[in-house]
Amino acid sequence: MRYHYYVSVILALIFTLTFTPLFGIKDVQAQQNQTSEKESATKGESLSNVIFNSLNNISYQQYLDAGDKNFKLADINADVILVQIFSMYCPHCQRDAPNMNNFFNLIQKSESYKDKIKFIGIGVGNSEFEVEFFRKTYSVEFPLLPDQDFKIHKLLGEVRTPYFIGFKKIKDGSLKLFMSESGGDREPKAFLEQIVKQADIK
């Protein structure tokens, strides 16, 4: 019985990922209202106070270097922490996954930025299973964390997906918000240049 249950879940997920763009099934982005520029300027600040569960994935632990216990973004060993708010069911996020992979690889191949910029994704409304399914389907190498109960999404004011939030670590170890904006289809090289400029990375 359990075997048939898992097969059914997997088939349902495959159907959703395959046909969502065709049938226009509602996603997180479609459900949200437009926000003003003033609102967007401060959205994401509350994310710095979120406590994430300890990571079981060894490669994630090594990449973030945030310890082996529960952690905050400020615990991540980097000057800049960039967060993508996504959903496995969001067709825009699905389409943008190759760009985000290329963006991550650009950072990792750069001697100037690979130790200064760390990149994670938070799957709103997604369980660990769904986040892992997205990771495997789109060969995502950067850490993806679940937000199954929409707690983080609600804390952020239910932002549209995909949404990007950037923090720069300042001298006292706290984080300063430098980016908070929606939109996908980002050209990887141009996006990296934007991050470097806005965060004033030396």
Write down how many β-strands occur, each being a DSSP E stretch of 2 or more residues.
5
Shape: globular
Number of domains: 1
Q: Return Rg in Å.
A: 17 Å
- The CATH architecture term is 3-Layer(aba) Sandwich
Number of helices: 8
Low-confidence runs of at least 5 consecutive residues? 1-9, 15-39
Q: Structural class, from helix and strand content?
A: alpha/beta
Overall helicity: 40-55%
CATH topology: Glutaredoxin
Label this structure with key terms:
5-stranded mixed sheet; 8 helices; globular; disordered N terminus
Could you characterize the architecture of this molecule?
The chain is an alpha/beta fold and 202 residues long. The chain has one domain: Glutaredoxin, CATH 3.40.30.10. It is 42% helix and 17% strand. The protein is built from 8 helices and 5 strands, in the order ααααβαβαβαββα. It has helices spanning 2-23, 28-31, 37-42, 58-64, 91-109, 128-137, 151-155, 188-199, and strands at residues 80-86, 117-124, 144-147, 163-169, 175-182. The chain has a 5-stranded mixed beta sheet with strand order 3-2-1-4-5. Strand 2, helix 6 and strand 3 form a beta-alpha-beta unit. Helix 5 crosses helix 8. The radius of gyration is 17 Å and the shape is globular. The N and C termini lie far apart (57 Å). Mean pLDDT is 84; it is low at 1-9 and 15-39.
Fold topology:
Layout: H1 2-23, H2 28-31, H3 37-42, H4 58-64, E1 80-86, H5 91-109, E2 117-124, H6 128-137, E3 144-147, H7 151-155, E4 163-169, E5 175-182, H8 188-199
Parallel strand pairs: 1-2, 2-3
Antiparallel strand pairs: 1-4, 4-5
